[in-house]
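new request in #modeling-help
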Amino acid sequence: MREVETQARRFVPHWRRPHPLLFALEGSRVFGERLAAELELPISPLEERSFEDGEKKCRPLADVCGRDVFVVSGLERDASESVHDRLLKLLFFIATLKINGAARVTAIAPYLPYMRKDRQTKAQDPLTAAYVARFFETAGTDCLITMETHNLAAFQNAFRCRAINLVAYEAFAGHFAERILNQGVTVVSPDLGGAKRAEMFRERLETRLRRPVGLAFMEKQRSQGIVSGDLFAGDVDDRFVIILDDLISSGTTMLRAAKACAERGAREIHLCATHAVFSKPAAADLSAAFIDGIVVSDTIALAEPYRSDRRIAVIPVAHFFAEAAARAYEAGAE
Ligand SMILES: O=P(O)(O)OC[C@H]1O[C@H](OP(=O)(O)OP(=O)(O)O)[C@H](O)[C@@H]1O
């Protein structure tokens, strides 16, 4: 794993007095500290306790009455907490802030889970993306900030409170532009659902490189956990290929797209995804020799064994969140 340096800061926060409070829930201290540095705010103290029966308690130790509050929490699973533990803990904490008089609460969830189930594809399917949005609203969230949600249209339709989706394409494009020499370049979407994302990234990369960048797509269907579909559109022969997706979980999607590119003569194959969810089997799959590099952001802290993998570059994105949080604060104060 290689930590890539944060790009130059583009904003300086100006807080009125008293300044907003920033809380970082357990498991999010590293990202919280990066955010705190960007926002020039201290992390406020809180009490987190787990009880013998599995229930949790989370209490602010700074007086929140009348204050603007930012609360950051990673919502991915880690060794000590499940997605559900973290999601419920954040929702309870937001509700606690509100009943104790917080003026406005901005939830910062670098990775927002449950967004993949955004439509009914089978009879009586749940719509978890919409339910998660309702839970945040019910808890009293005034604004939610996340990055690279799975389906932007579904995300925007699900939330009635302010919901901001950030993207890291500019940072990814900058990273690749420094490494691509005079090769032809193609951005590949590993499924049709990601076509718009790939196109947006391709445009940024083209601007950086000042020459045309190609686009390619692969077919993908997922049913009962089995991924299928072999159609491939676009030219990757002898090209520097970047396969772009929102997240890597098992790695199945990226691996099959990378294989398809290798079979079609790609010269170099790089995977690029905002969220390194990396559920267990990904480790073995992504070590394939035809994968030259993997670029992710730090929305999710890398678990072992990925930390020692030199092919993985991690792009910091806390500054995007800091700027969005500061803007949301300014807008709310108008
Ligand atoms: O690493 P993996 O385990 O393969 O998971 C990652 C994939 O899952 C999501 O798409 P999904 O399969 O839900 O498809 P969709 O675009 O049809 O919603 C996501 O956009 C990735 O493509």
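bot summary: Residues 116, 150, 190-191, 193, 222, 245-253 surround PRP (CB under 6 Å).
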